[in-house]
Amino acid sequence: MWNWLLNIRNAVATVAQGLGVTLRYWIITYQDDRGTFTEKFEYPEKPVPVAARYRGFHRFDLTTCIACDKCAKACPVDCIYIGKERSEGTKGFRVTGYTIDYSKCMFCALCVEPCPVDCIFMGATHDLSCYSRDGCIVDFSRLPLDVAWGRATLNPTVVSESKAITEPVHNGPSS
Fold first, then answer.
1. Are 93 and 85 in contact (CB under 8 A)?
2. Phi, psi angle pair for 25, to nearest 5°
3. By the 8 A CB rule, do 161 and 142 touch?
4. Which of 49, 83, 140, 145 could be bridged to 97 by S-S, CB 3.0 to 4.6 A?
5. How does pLDDT run along the chain (175 residues), one tens digit per residue?
6. Cα dihedral angle (84, 86, 90, 95), rounded to 10 degrees?
7. Hey, what's the torsion of the CAs at 153, 87, 82, 109, to 10 degrees?
8. Measured between alpha carbons, how far is 111 from 58 in angstroms, rounded to an integer?
9. Model pTM above 0.70
């Protein structure tokens, strides 16, 4: 009988504690000096500060990629698609397409570790929003060179403009 009463007391105490946390944060939302998110960070004019090890949208250096498929094989959700063809006169491959489907990607960074030439790494971009599923598929070989090589940030307008290009921008490191 005493255990039953103690269990009821513990249940009431934990529910009250949770409601106290909720009430505290609810009251904070009505403070005058709180401000909105856009007032605090001036988004999108200034980028939102992210942590040093933030795993945002990928950055990819097309010049160093050897099309070894290790990143695509390490991806647990199969969101990386690499198009390649044999280079004439060499034993390597030429990258014809490097596509990441961000509607599948879970930003786990498992594709970064197995790359032998460190051509793919996680960037700090977090706002690649789009209105269609087609906008979530990014082909790094069709992006402008600064974006594809990781010198500029990936943004929705560049991705949408890259879909209009019919030929890849870069033919690979051995061309």
1. yes
2. -70, -30
3. no
4. 83
5. 899 999 999 999 999 999 999 999 899 888 888 777 667 777 667 777 778 888 888 888 888 888 899 999 999 999 999 998 888 888 888 888 889 998 899 999 999 999 999 888 888 777 777 777 877 888 888 887 777 666 676 777 777 777 765 555 555 444 4
6. -20
7. -60
8. 10
9. no
